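User: Structure please.
Assistant: Input sequence and predicted structure:
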Amino acid sequence: MTRSLFTRLSLSAAALAAVGSGLIVSTPLAAQNVPTPTMTIYGNQKCPTDTNGNEIVVCVRRAPGEQFRIPKELRELEVTPENESWAAKAQANDKVGVEGIGTCSTVGAGGSMGCLAQRGQQYKRERQATKKDQRAVDRALE
């Protein structure tokens, strides 16, 4: 009798430890396999449920001004050569072979002034990209 009681206690302790560590999931949760619906709402809109209030809907609230805009997740697209517009590519090709004032060329008067302007523009773009990356990191940490 004592041995049987000890066996039952040890089995129940092992089962509790397995449930507590997440090795065994309760049957109703595992059997449902139904995703929780997620909905984006704007402004003062109410989060909808069924008539009885039994359905759980996870609502993400955004500002009312964002309702008719492309979502932020899709807006922040970094321009790479694959998704750069044809107009930007054509504009970049317009400066090929240009010499003289305002260019970064050893040919022609004032070529070095263009190099200074190009370096300044490149520095400005790098600073803007750094600030954008820092804002993304700050948003992720919030």
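The mean pLDDT is 74.
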